Amino acid sequence: MNKNLILLALTLAAAPAFAADLLQVYRDAIEYDAQYASARAARDAGQEKLPQGRAGLLPVISASASTTKNDVDFQRRTAGAAGVDAQYNTNGYQLTLTQPLFRWQNFVQYDQSKLQVTLTEAQFVQARQDLILRVAQAYFDVLLAQDSLSLAQAQKKAIGEQLEAAKRNFEVGTSTIVDTHEAQARFDLITAQELAAQNDLEIKRQALNQVIGKVPERLNALRPQVQLQRPQPDDIAKWAESADTGSPLVAVQQAAFEIAEKEIGRQRAGHYPTLDLVATRGRSSATGGLALGVPAPGSDTHTSTIGLQLTVPLFAGGAVMSKEREAVALREKARADLDNTRRGAVLGARQAYLGVTSGMAQVKAFEQALVSNQSALDSNKLGYEVGVRINIDVLNAQQQLFSTRRDLAKARYDTLLAQLKLKAAAGTLGEDDVQAINALLEKGRGGGGASRRPVCFRRGPVGGGGGAAGAWRFQGGVWCVRGGWWGDSVDKRQCLRRRAAVASGEIPSRLAHATARCRVAQQGIGCFQQFLR
């Protein structure tokens, strides 16, 4: 068969589908997320506190007008006196201007309105940082769920191959039925774990849907060999200091404390006199009148006044003093809340910093463990073939390998989240940090089980027949066929570097189906080409 046809099929199968990245998901969340929309509306409402506070210092102008129809029946208390009836209309208007000259509570309230705007702005900054964290958490949760499902499927495939091998060995008498039962038990267990992983993936995708209103067909995965960077500055004390002064939560509580402190002065102003400038301009008219029983002609009156109005509070039943004591108590509460928030911010920064540093150490440890576990699995497989290892040893090595892969993926995601949490604790988390994390993702590739990675083949004298290229089998994570290496410009070193991607099952489902069927049937390239059609 023409090997170029096989390579073309591999190329088409490996073509990436459209995928969303972290930055795109974040921008979608800005437009859709209900919590962020609520915070934005609260910020817009809070900004109106400033003009409301300023209004207490500006003049108040009011206008009033009235019109009245009068029907008067006048009767003297004198015997024989005739009554007098009169009907007329009176109307008028008045303009009043009141300019506060001294109202101490209004000045304090204006200062409070400035602080309330600062508070709402800090709350909005916190909401934006929370959105970034929630988006990143949902994004990485989906990736981890996809990785878990992909690894479960790969482990199921590997156990299935081990189960088939145990059955064949039992049939030819080289192993006992115990090997088959052990492999079957592991196969049934991983099947249940696969179902649980599928359910968990659907839950995580719906959680992402709640944030952005849709679920992308694919999410860009983390690059396989990505190098995580230590925090800059690499000093836990500086991060704690930044959190103490720059955290949005601290800024919110600082503004709340200052508002509570000024509230004492505003309530105390209830004892102070007020002084206003009052000016009026009015006109009153009447179409007629009645004076001592004698009808009178209509009249028009214009009035203008200007003056000062002084009001001195004397006694309000003790309400002013009670409100002042209440304000003092609330200030102490705000002070305690501020101290608690600062301590919490410092603790959160320290925890996030340690989460980054310890996470990076775990990633390195898991990477080394992955190499060791792969070697252990290869050794156990070889030992099983030559009879120095039993089936359960191979199954345990497989399980340990896949568990390490899952733990490595989780450690990477947790470390990236800890980096974002560290920036959030210091109050510097923004879209630039999302872009920095986004740069660590693959471009145009799907995450987890949907990932597409190159598949490399090794050929050599492995025996068997069937097909022009001879028999083939899976050896150490690389497909072996007779006659050489398959793949355009893929040498042995490159192929071995990608062996983990092949062994973990991160290959197109159609290709996986073809390789599995042909391998079980002990057929060669002709079978492989047939299934790829």
Record keyword descriptors for this entry.
disordered C terminus, 8 strands, 533 residues, 4-stranded antiparallel sheet, 4-stranded mixed sheet, 61% helix, disordered N terminus, alpha+beta, elongated
Summarize the entry for a quick read:
By secondary structure, the chain is α+β, with helices and mostly antiparallel strands. The chain has helices at residues 3-13, 22-32, 34-47, 49-55, 104-172, 177-212, 236-246, 248-268, 319-386, 391-426, 431-438, 492-497, 499-503, 509-520, 525-532, and strands at 60-74, 84-102, 274-291, 294-311, 457-459, 472-475, 478-481, 485-486. Helix content is 61%, strand content 16%.
Task: Write the SSE topology.
Layout: H1 3-13, H2 22-32, H3 34-47, H4 49-55, E1 60-74, E2 84-102, H5 104-172, H6 177-212, H7 236-246, H8 248-268, E3 274-291, E4 294-311, H9 319-386, H10 391-426, H11 431-438, E5 457-459, E6 472-475, E7 478-481, E8 485-486, H12 492-497, H13 499-503, H14 509-520, H15 525-532
Helix pairs in contact: 1-15, 2-5, 3-5, 4-5, 5-6, 5-8, 5-10, 7-9, 8-9, 9-10, 14-15
Head-to-tail CA distance between termini = 13 Å
| Average of pLDDT | 80
Number of strands: 8
Name the poorly predicted regions.
1-18, 445-533
Main sheet: strands, sense, barrel: 4 strands, antiparallel
Specify the helix fraction band.
55-70%
Order of H and E elements: HHHHEEHHHHEEHHHEEEEHHHH
Which structural class is indicated by helix and strand composition? alpha+beta
Strands ordered across the widest β-sheet: 1-2-3-4
The coarse silhouette is elongated
Gyration radius, in Å: 41 Å
Strand content: 15-25%
Number of helices: 15
